[in-house]
Amino acid sequence: MVLCILLQWMQIGGKQKYPAFKPGAKYGRGYCDGQCPHDMKVSSGRANVDGWKPQDNDENSGNGKLGTCCWEMDIWEGNLVSQAYTVHAGSKSGQYECTGTQCGDTDSGERFKGTCDKDGCDFASYRWGATDYYGPGKTVDTKQPMTVVTQFIGDPLTEIKRVYVQGGKVINNSKTSNLGSVYDSLTEAFCDDTKQVTGDTNDFKAKGGMSGFSKNLDTPQVLVMSLWDDHTANMLWLDSTYPTDSTKPGAARGTCAVTSGDPKDVESKQANSQVVYSDIKFGPINSTYKAN
Ligand SMILES: *[C@@H]1O[C@H](CO)[C@@H](O)[C@H](O)[C@H]1NC(C)=O
Ligand SMILES: *[C@@H]1O[C@H](CO)[C@@H](O)[C@H](O)[C@H]1NC(C)=O
């Protein structure tokens, strides 16, 4: 199973900011995120026709000159075998259009030169060593419904915590086992440790880290939910080994084969996939869930 469920916050980039632009969020417009996507057909209230190139492996998609950026908090990216929650820093608030270097396009070798932290800092149980924690029949059993709790601690923010509730029981988040110290939540120290162990660029820190991200929480947000497949990396970053030939800590992210996740296969074999999001709650810490 290689579809991914995304639950994410983003900022308003539609009707409110661009009043001449009528359709708005109701029609799926106004989307932006920390990847500054170029594949929005309407971007910042205008058609993204300039420089539009159809995507070679997706007849419904393409990329135009305009990217649409904003900060991003991935509350939930997951499927049957793996999950992650990921905070992306960002040095600029609100939705904004980008062109050129500001977009931080990977293809142009400018991934870390844009305004957004594209990599982010992710807490993914399997990736950080808790391989028996999440999946079919595991501690958090993905064959059963679950409540996913995400807590934003501190102002300015210092920590993003996770607990699950399943079968009436509260299940604490997994603990890491392949980093310099043991962690069970997203903190600045956890993020630094993951970047050090993997050797990845610490763009999260460079773009303002947890305290920088905290400022974004003072502005209006939009909750976005989707079910998607991945025409760029076949979702291997979530549920397989990625980079596919790496044996470094953090490369193994799940049990899927490195050959899995091709959208051609996903769309033909798993076309009936569905997800149910229900009982969505916001509230003071610990008020949104209880054990039975
Ligand atoms: C779960 O975490 C809380 C602290 O957040 C702790 O008090 C409790 O003992 C933990 N439960 C288990 C089973 O480890
Ligand atoms: C929330 O619950 C956890 C675990 O039971 C506890 O450790 C923590 O202090 C509580 N936080 C607040 C703000 O009540």
TrEMBL record:
The keyword Nucleus does not apply. Its EC number is 3.2.1.91. It is an enzyme of class 3 (hydrolase). GO terms for biological process: cellulose catabolic process. Residues 246-270 are annotated as: Disordered. It catalyses: Hydrolysis of (1->4)-beta-D-glucosidic linkages in cellulose and cellotetraose, releasing cellobiose from the non-reducing ends of the chains. Keywords: Carbohydrate metabolism, Cellulose degradation, Glycosidase, Hydrolase, Polysaccharide degradation, Signal. This is cellulose 1,4-beta-cellobiosidase (non-reducing end). GO terms for molecular function: cellulose 1,4-beta-cellobiosidase activity. It comes from Reticulitermes flavipes gut symbiont cell-3. Belongs to the glycosyl hydrolase 7 (cellulase C) family. Gene3D superfamilies: Glycoside hydrolase, family 7, domain.
